[in-house]
Amino acid sequence: MLHAGVGYAQPTQSLPEKVTLDDSALQVLTDFQRVTAIIILSGDTVDEAHARMIQRGVRLLLVVDQDRRVLGVITANDILGEKPMQMIAQRGITRDDLLVRDVMTPQEQLDVLDLADVRAAKVGHIVATLQKSGRQHAVVVEIDDKRRQKVRGVFSATQIARQLGVAIQTSHVARTFSEIEVMLRR
Predict the structure, then answer these.
(1) 8 Å CB contact between 137 and 131
(2) Order of strands, edge to edge, in the sheet holding 149-156?
(3) Is the distance from CB of 104 to CB of 91 less than 8 angstroms?
(4) pLDDT at 1 (0 to 100)
(5) Do strands 39-41 and 60-64 pair parallel, antiparallel, or not at all (unpaired)?
(6) Mean pLDDT within 97-105
(7) Long-range contacts for 75-81 (Cβ within 8 Å, ≥24 apart)?
(8) Side-chain half-sphere of 62: how many Cα atoms within 13 Å?
(9) How far apart are CA 144 and CA 51, in angstroms?
């Protein structure tokens, strides 16, 4: 008999509290082999996606189909930025009718990092990559022997800033290594 109040095992990933720009990029990667990816269906509403982000404490969801194939991503910026208002105006719909597929970034528009490259990268390389792309997140894929991709994890500028101990607003990441070094010296 199962006792009352029993929990269940879940994947856990323990990222180091502090990192430096010279540490391995793997130290700041949210690895989906070690932590469950938070997903949403493309036909779910934007408000459902936002609620899930708040509930799970994340700012990015993988958008999947019924077979759990990745169709793209939706971020808090997609939900809280200009995209929803533009779609509502274009289509003459209400916010309640706005779906994830309407504002997500589809997979064909996603730039990804190869896990093989990430293994050789430093935290500073990832920060520079995020800044250059102008994004708060970077999706990491693993490529199997048959050259098929699988989403392996994600980098988050907010998470990296937390681990670096630098107050970086989620809408702004330092542009250069020298800016990061100045912030770290403060």
Answers:
(1) no
(2) 30-31, 149-156, 137-143, 112-114
(3) no
(4) 75
(5) parallel
(6) 95
(7) 75/105, 75/136, 75/137, 76/50, 76/170, 77/136, 77/171, 78/103, 78/104, 78/105, 79/46, 79/49, 79/50, 79/53, 79/103, 80/50
(8) 22
(9) 34
Q: Is the pLDDT of residue 100 over 70?
A: yes
Q: Which CATH class is domain 25-185?
A: alpha beta
List phi, psi (to 5°) of 173. Answer: -120, 140
* Strands across the sheet containing 60-64: 39-41, 60-64, 70-75, 105-106
d(CA 46, CA 40): 10
Q: How many residues does the chain have?
A: 186
Task: Report residue 118 as tokens.
Answer: 């990430």
Give 12-57 pLDDT, tens digit per residue: 777 778 999 999 999 999 999 999 999 999 999 999 999 999 999 9
The two three-digit tokens of residue 166, written as one number: 């630098």
